[in-house]
């Protein structure tokens, strides 16, 4: 009568030494399954060994796997992110604009133009804007005039329109260099644009 051997609840008929070897092999595969050595006893040991890598069971945060691919992934994840160097640039535009002081262009102005006209103005200033009124004299004829313009630094751009309204004088002055001649352009209705020089003096 054949002998029966019981292993893990499985009844196996033993017919000698070959049967005993088969039994030992099955017990060994079963032990590996229970201990996490392999996913299955079918021979796919690489997949099983991957999941038994200590990286999945290590309690520390600095374990490096023995597997080259896994190690490279760990090192890339642990490598600090470089955000590049921060270059500090001076705020030249804001600082430069703040450093430009607006000159005071208000006061009584007397101007002599190279085309023979004379202009007298009483100008007022609000920030970088100037405006006022006065008169323009051509030969023996004097008429009222209105003026408005802007001040940028020490440069004044002033538009003067006589009472007749048919021409406009655009005058450019540098307050810091009034001893030098400045320039003007005249725009006339139905005529060509003219230009010339102007000498200006101011009484604050």
Concise structural overview:
The chain has four helices and ten strands; from the N terminus they run ββααααββββββββ. It has helices at residues 17-35, 45-51, 68-78, 92-99, and strands spanning 3-7, 10-14, 107-113, 117-126, 129-138, 141-152, 155-162, 167-174, 182-188, 194-203.
Walk me through the structure.
By secondary structure, this protein is an alpha+beta fold. It folds into 2 domains: 3-72, no CATH class; 107-203, Lipocalin (Beta Barrel), CATH 2.40.128. Helix content is 22%, strand content 40%. The strands form 2 sheets. The protein has an 8-stranded antiparallel barrel. The chain has a two-stranded antiparallel sheet with strand order 1-2.
Keywords, separated by commas or semicolons:
2 domains, 4 helices, two-stranded antiparallel sheet, 8-stranded antiparallel β-barrel, 204 residues, alpha+beta, Lipocalin, 10 strands
How would the blueprint of this fold be written?
Layout: E1 3-7, E2 10-14, H1 17-35, H2 45-51, H3 68-78, H4 92-99, E3 107-113, E4 117-126, E5 129-138, E6 141-152, E7 155-162, E8 167-174, E9 182-188, E10 194-203
Antiparallel strand pairs: 1-2, 3-4, 3-10, 4-5, 5-6, 6-7, 7-8, 8-9, 9-10
């Amino acid at each position: 009568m054949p002998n029966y051997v019981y292993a893990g609840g499985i009844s196996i008929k033993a017919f000698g030494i070959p049967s005993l070897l088969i039994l030992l092999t099955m017990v060994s595969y079963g032990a590996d399954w229970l201990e996490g050595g392999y996913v299955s006893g079918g021979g796919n040991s690489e997949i099983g060994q991957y999941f038994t890598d200590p990286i999945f069971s290590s309690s520390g945060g600095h374990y490096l796997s023995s597997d080259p691919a896994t190690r490279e992934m760990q090192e890339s994840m642990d490598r600090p992110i470089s955000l590049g160097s921060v270059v500090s640039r001076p705020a030249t535009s804001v600082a430069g604009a703040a450093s430009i002081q607006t000159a005071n262009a208000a006061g009584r102005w007397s101007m002599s133009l190279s085309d023979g006209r004379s202009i007298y103005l009483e100008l007022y200033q609000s920030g970088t804007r100037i405006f006022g009124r006065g008169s323009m004299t051509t030969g023996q004829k004097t008429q009222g005039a209105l003026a408005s313009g802007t001040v940028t630094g020490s440069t004044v751009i002033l538009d003067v329109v006589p009472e007749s309204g048919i021409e406009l004088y655009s005058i450019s002055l540098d307050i810091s260099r009034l001893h030098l001649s400045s320039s003007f352009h005249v725009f006339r209705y139905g005529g060509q644009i003219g230009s010339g020089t102007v000498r200006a003096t101011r009484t604050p």
